Amino acid sequence: MTPFKIALFANHFPGLEVAKFIASQQQDEVCALYLTGENPVNDNSIIGALNISPDNIFIGSDIVKQDSHINWFKQQKFDAIICVYWPWLLGPKIFNSASVTVNFHPALLPINRGWFPHVHSLIDGSKAGVTIHRIEDGADTGAIWAQKEIQILSTETAKDIYDRLQTEIVDLFKVNWGKIKKGEIIPSSQDESKAIYHAKKEIEELDLIDPEGMYRAKDLINLLRARTFGSRGFAYLRDGDEKIFLKLGLSKSSKFDQ
C-alpha cells in the first residue's frame, strides 16, 4: 500500500512525541521534516525518531518562503501537512498543496488565538483547552478537527498548565489522526463572533507590578500564577534601575478544621 506522505513541521516536546507516533504508524511516512533550530537537542531527538533522508530536513522559517523550495514542495505531492507548535505562519502556496492539514494550538479555539493562551486563561478566566485544526490564512483560524476543554486547577501556575496542555494536545492528535486521514471527521468552522487574538507583545504589559496599585487579591494571585514558569518569575517590581522578580508557589494542605 502506498504510504501516506507527510510534511512535518515539528517543535518542542509535542513535536517529538508526534514524530515518534507517526514513525510507529505503518502507513505513515514523514517525507520532509522542518525544524526551528531553537532547541538542537530536541531537534536531534526528532530526527532520531524518524527514518528520513538528511536532504529532506530543513531548519528555520526562510526555506518555505523561497520560490524554488515552494516549487519543490508542490512536486512532492504530500498527502498531509502537520504543524506541531510551529511558531511561523505558512503561506497558502504551501498549505494549499496538501489535502489534509493539521495545526496544533493549546487553546479552546476560537478563544485565545495567538500567543501564550495559557497565560491569558489564568489571568482572565477564559476557558482553557487544546485544538487541532486545518491550516488556513491567519493565525489559528482554520476549521476544527477536534478539541478538548481542560480545567485549570487552583494550584497550577503557567508552567503546570503549559506542560499539561502539551500532553493533552498530543493525546488528542493520537486519538483523531486515523479518523482525519480516512475522512471520517468533517472539520467545523470557527465561530468568528467568539474569536479572541493575543499578540506576542501583550505579555510584556502584564509584568510590571505597581506596589502602590490597587489589586483585588484574586487578580494579583492569578497574575503571579500566570507569570510563574517553573523556578522563574516574570512579574517584577521596580527598584531604581533594577527589577525584583516575583514568582508564586501554591500547594494544598488538609481541609480546614471544623
CATH H level, superfamily name of the largest domain: Formyl transferase, N-terminal domain
The sequence of SSEs as H and E is EHEHEHEHEEHEEHEHEEEE
- SS field, number of helical segments: 7
- Order of adjacent strands in the largest pleated sheet: 3-2-1-4-5-7-8
Q: How many beta-strand runs? A: 13
Might you state the CATH topology name of the largest domain? Rossmann fold
CATH architecture of the largest domain: 3-Layer(aba) Sandwich
Q: What are the defining features of this structure?
A:
single chain; 258 residues; alpha/beta; Rossmann fold; seven-stranded mixed sheet; 13 strands
List the helices and strands and how they pair.
Blueprint: E1 4-10, H1 12-24, E2 28-35, H2 40-49, E3 57-59, H3 67-75, E4 80-84, H4 92-95, E5 100-105, E6 113-114, H5 117-124, E7 128-133, E8 144-150, H6 158-181, E9 197-198, H7 217-226, E10 228-229, E11 232-233, E12 235-239, E13 242-246
Helix pairs in contact: 1-2, 1-6, 5-7
Commentary on this structure:
The chain has 258 residues and is α/β, with parallel strands linked by helices. The chain has two domains: 4-198, Rossmann fold (3-Layer(aba) Sandwich); 202-246, no CATH class. It has helices at residues 12-24, 40-49, 67-75, 92-95, 117-124, 158-181, 217-226; strands at 4-10, 28-35, 57-59, 80-84, 100-105, 113-114, 128-133, 144-150, 197-198, 228-229, 232-233, 235-239, 242-246. The strands form four sheets. The chain has a seven-stranded mixed sheet with strand order 3-2-1-4-5-7-8. A two-stranded parallel ribbon has the order 6-9. The chain is elongated. The termini are far apart.
